[in-house]
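We were asked to recover a plausible sequence for a given structure. The inputs and outputs are reproduced exactly as logged, with field labels preserved.

PROBLEM: sequence recovery
POSITIONS: 236
GIVEN STRUCTURE:
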């Protein structure tokens, strides 16, 4: 929940200039209030996503945003099941799954977030948590839809805290997520799914994550608020 419309436009313009020549796919998932203005910029390199959505096209769901609305303002991606949605707003796997299915049927690419709390980590439940969240979050997804899904492993205890998961540990957990995909959809499709790491990703630590064989990208939080630091992560 950062940046008014003018600030978002300025940051997006700067980012577009700085990452224009990068082979990396770059997406801004901005607050709903800024999406129309960002779409009007006609960005060619930077794509747009939303931070959440509801699983109906329209109706009496005060305060919610539909996939139809997101498509209308130029979104290609939508983050679903972010840890803050799970922790603060009590969204469960069933609700998140409905959103994933609706995003896919509407033509949006869901970024499905999974990850454990500090208590779950200390109890040795990391793998159980991410396997369960991945399995339930993708229930009913057809094999031909899977490559439109991005998964982001974001340990809850590492988000916005300045703490981050050891790169080897993150790689092992993401490998377990990919193994789960292989069990559900087959090894070939599992290898095609982009699985990101998220949790206090910064220019200073991006390299160690990207050197890991299972990690395909990053879901960047605080470090994305300044175009220069976001671009530095893209160009690591």
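RECOVERED SEQUENCE:
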């Amino acid at each position: 929940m950062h940046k008014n419309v003018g600030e978002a436009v300025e940051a997006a313009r700067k980012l577009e200039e700085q990452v224009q020549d990068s082979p990396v796919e770059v997406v801004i998932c901005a607050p709903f209030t800024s999406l129309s203005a960002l779409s009007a910029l006609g960005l060619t390199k930077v794509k747009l996503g939303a931070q959440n959505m509801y699983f109906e096209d329209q109706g009496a769901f005060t305060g919610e945003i539909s996939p139809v609305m997101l498509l209308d303002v130029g979104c290609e991606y939508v983050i679903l099941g972010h840890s803050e949605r799970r922790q603060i707003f009590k969204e469960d796997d069933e609700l998140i799954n409905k959103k994933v299915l609706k995003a896919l049927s509407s033509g949006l690419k869901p970024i499905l977030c999974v990850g454990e709390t500090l208590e779950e980590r200390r109890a040795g439940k990391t793998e159980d948590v991410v396997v369960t969240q991945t399995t339930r979050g993708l229930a009913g997804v057809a094999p031909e839809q899977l490559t439109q899904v991005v998964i982001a492993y974001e340990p809850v205890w590492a988000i916005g805290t300045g703490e981050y998961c050891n790169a080897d540990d993150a790689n092992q957990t993401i490998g377990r997520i990919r193994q789960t995909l292989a069990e559900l959809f087959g090894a070939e499709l599992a290898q095609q799914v982009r699985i990101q790491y998220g949790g206090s990703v910064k220019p200073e630590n991006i390299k160690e994550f990207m050197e890991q064989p299972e990690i395909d990208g990053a879901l960047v939080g605080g470090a994305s608020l300044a175009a220069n630091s976001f671009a530095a992560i893209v160009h690591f």
